[in-house]
Amino acid sequence: MGIITGGTRQGHEPELTGVVIRSSAGHLLVAVDGTIWRCQMRGRLKRGKRQSQTVAVVGDRVRIGAQDPHAEPPRGVLEEVLPRTNRISRMAARRTGGHVEQVLMANLDQVVAVQSIAEPRPQTGFVDRLLVAAERFGVAGVLVLNKADLPEPADQKTMWDYFVSMGYKVLRTSAETGQGGPQLADLLKDRVSLLIGASGVGKSSLLNLVEPGLRLRVGEVTGKTGLGRHTTTSTELFPLAGGGFIADSPGIRGFDPWAIAPRDVRDYFPDFAEPQQACRFRTCLHRDEPVCGVKEAVAKGRIPRWRLAAYLSLLGDLEERAERLGPRKRP
Prior knowledge:
The protein has seven helices and 13 strands. It has helices at residues 43-46, 126-137, 154-165, 181-188, 203-210, 293-299, 305-325; strands at residues 15-24, 27-32, 35-41, 61-68, 75-81, 87-91, 101-106, 110-116, 140-146, 169-172, 192-196, 236-239, 245-248. The strands form three sheets. The protein has a six-stranded mixed beta sheet, with helices on both faces. Strands 1-2-3-5-4 form a five-stranded mixed beta barrel. Strands 6-7 form a two-stranded antiparallel sheet.
């Protein structure tokens, strides 16, 4: 990441290639060979109707023109966003009507879903939806359960163990005691990772644990709502001393995956792959169809009921969105 490709167009400023480490309101910080450039977006990139909320996001490889390389920091202008290898994205705020994509990060190796054992309680269905987005775009998914120094209800442990049985890495940590810190550092080493979760679960605290030099602001859970206060206001990418990069993101409480048709969502639940072979109909959505292999697996206890409920909730939301957009605008 952040390599100079060099080059100068005749009559134009030198061109460089770097990686976006922060993006906010048309202003970017771009890492180019160890130097941070402050860049503005070229006007032509802002024109016209866009399907995505932001032109360039954290993790994007971009081409910039050097306007004032001797300023502190050096200043440039964004010329082009280079093709992405993958991304993690969701539907932007529902007031957009499902027409706008919010890309949280591009060109990453793994997304790390951070949940807390308690204070606040884990978000029902959030992890399932985030992992669907990861499966959709070919990004590895990791689960981190923070505040492991607090008592863990038995039903929660059973739930997290089920994710382990599907092949996902699940790590228990405590920013308070240091538990799991070395293991988390090892998971992040030499990878480009995005930490995502609700406010108050301890994302920034965990980053301070594995990379003390970051000194990120830490918030607390409010007693009135049981939810956390935002301390991270925008996604930012940080280099890790041991190798790799980590992006800390603002807390989010909901996740509606982008670019998934309702008929395809079942394919991103890997635990459904084998039992759905027994479905009578190839188009079975595992809802009210007769002879459904997935529902039979639930009845026999091979798939937990909460897992099917998470799938059906997401399916319903995607169908509602598809209905609003109409057949020509569906992903």
